[in-house]
Design a protein that fits this description.
The protein is mostly helical. The chain contains five helices and no strands. Its main location: membrane.
């Protein structure tokens, strides 16, 4: 870079004072300062853009390595699966349909009820409703006691003044 010491800056200032004049020197100094500031911001933006592009290239390289490793894993899993299927078919080739297959009728998950693996059991809404605290029901306006229409009218009828 340019080596500017105090003596060189003083010499530049004296020459500028003589050439430009004392009236225009503050305005020129302000303009030069703003131009130097813009140049510094531009250089900082260029550096940041270069850094971003370098990081982007590194991320692309990382992505490629992850994709290649994923493909390798997929190929090994596929080859292992085909080997397993081949061995399974060889092992089960000698079995006949007369062999006994264990039954799961006695197990709890497949009993004769309506609960199958495709449908969930229905929830007991009374238990769920009973789990809500009374103070919350009172605040939310939930009726906790059954009341007939006539009883409700009698309860909420305005009382006459005596």
């Amino acid at each position: 870079m340019i080596d500017l010491g105090i003596s060189k800056l003083a010499l530049i200032g004296a020459v500028a004072l003589i050439v430009i004049g004392p009236e225009k020197l503050p305005r020129v100094a302000r303009t030069v300062g703003t131009l130097i500031g813009k140049a510094q911001r531009y250089v900082a933006d260029v550096k940041a853009e270069v850094n971003r592009s370098m990081e982007l290239e590194e991320l692309k390289k990382l992505k490629e390595t992850v994709e290649t490793s994923a493909r390798d894993i997929e190929q090994t899993v596929h080859s292992t699966a085909t080997e397993f299927e081949q061995q399974w078919s060889e092992a089960t080739a000698g079995l006949t349909s007369d062999t006994v297959v264990p039954s799961t009728e006695g197990s709890s998950w497949s009993s004769g009820s309506s609960n199958t693996s495709s449908s969930r059991p229905k929830k007991n809404w009374r238990l769920k409703r009973g789990a809500v605290p009374q103070w919350y029901k009172a605040r939310a306006g939930v009726r906790t006691h059954v009341q007939s229409g006539a009883a409700r009218v009698a309860r909420y009828r305005p009382r006459p003044f005596n």
